[in-house]
Amino acid sequence: MRWGIVLGFLAVAAPAGAAPKKNTAFQAHSKGVEFVARGKCREALPHFEEANRINPGFSPAWLERGRCLMLGGDRARAIAVLSQGIEKSARKEDRARLSREIHSLGEFFFTNETFQKCQDGLNLLRKGMAEEAVDALEEALDKEPDNTLVLTSLGRARILAAMRDKAREPLERALQLNPDRVDAKELLGQLLWDKEPARVLDLLEPLSRKRDAGEDTVLFTALAMAQMKRVRDATALLHGHVEERGDWL
Length: 249
Fold this sequence. Notes:
Layout: H1 2-13, H2 25-37, H3 41-54, H4 59-71, H5 75-88, H6 92-106, H7 112-126, H8 130-143, H9 148-160, H10 168-177, H11 182-192, H12 197-208, H13 215-227, H14 231-244
Helix pairs in contact: 2-3, 2-4, 3-4, 4-5, 4-6, 5-6, 7-8, 7-9, 8-9, 9-10, 9-11, 10-11, 11-12, 11-13, 12-13, 13-14
């Protein structure tokens, strides 16, 4: 009798079925990867988005979202998503990986025609034919207006072709897409050190403190410092790098 009462109680108290397992960021990401493997990036995107909704710091999903958007032809949105992933990622190595992906996608060419036009422009620059290089790079930019390599190269070509008033726009656009692009920062430093030294210091001073800083980074940082009446800082910066790297003499 007592066993019957106990068994009856257990039957009432026990759940009707096991509770459904909670979906995880990894599971959502895995579903997205399955679609990508079948060449269905559009169908994969919602799963990667779900993974980041569950865990905003899950960097593999941010990475795949960026790649899927890029394969869909939307470079600007792909880079914006990767930049958002950098903000959400807690681990330094994850942020570095997403940053490298931004750089890679920024220089990706959708067509061989655009790639060849950009190469033509770069070859003309090497030959000292800056005006002709501007024409070739502008044609490339018409085809792919968000390509950061084309934007930065066009800014450089316009500076060399004495078109400084038109050089800033593509360089600013390149930095908007990829805030870590050092060559675009250096070219802006070359353009603005005497007119907007505070902006140049915002762009270059953190880079100039690194041991492997490029010569242009250090030079235009020092010039901007001098413009801001920081002559002692400029002198110390230059002396420090010259002592560290005698090949600059």
